[in-house]
Amino acid sequence: MRVRAMALGALAGAVLLAGCEDGSDPAKDAADVAEIEAMHDMPPADMLKPERISYTDIEKNNLFGAGCGFAPEDSTAILFLAQEKHGFVKLDKRIVTLSPDVGSTELPMKAYGKYDGKEFAAELTIDQAADGEQSGIETTQYPGKLVLHDTKGRTVFERTGTVGCGA
Q1: Which superkingdom (predicted)?
Q2: What CA–CA distance (Å, rounded) separates 97 from 28?
């Protein structure tokens, strides 16, 4: 924290010194200082730790249906389910429901690339250049990434892995 404060102080000093040059714009300088102060006043983001969505969770919460599921690299644990009408993530042993951003990229099986919730948003991407690998009769797997953002847009979870889409 002390190093961060020193770095912000040095950056603020550099901005102020830059204002000493001829032709400086006082309004821009003030905006730069305000931005640095706002960053300094913002507490660090609380990182999220999504938990495995088990088959029991799927049964108990009726999460059945076509869509895509994200599993991080070197794991088969599904951490996020993306469906046409909802996205699901498990945090602190409870399933959190997110709403799809229907204006975002459409993924296979009527899933979407972005989902929004009260406390965070999810962004699920697949490598469009990669050919999906058939992994079952109705399932295709793609390389992909899951990113969760807090309400201030800060990344609070980010992993690459596999996105399996099917019915």
Answers
A1: Bacteria
A2: 42
Q: Where are the alpha helices (DSSP H) in the chain?
A: 2-18, 26-41, 55-60
Per-residue pLDDT of the chain (167 residues; tens, 9 = 90+): 444 444 444 444 555 555 455 567 888 888 877 777 766 667 787 889 999 999 999 999 999 999 999 999 989 999 999 999 999 999 999 999 999 999 999 999 999 999 999 999 999 999 977 778 888 788 899 999 999 999 999 999 999 999 999 98
Domain ranges of the chain: 2-41, 55-166
Tokens (6 digits) for 54: 């088990």
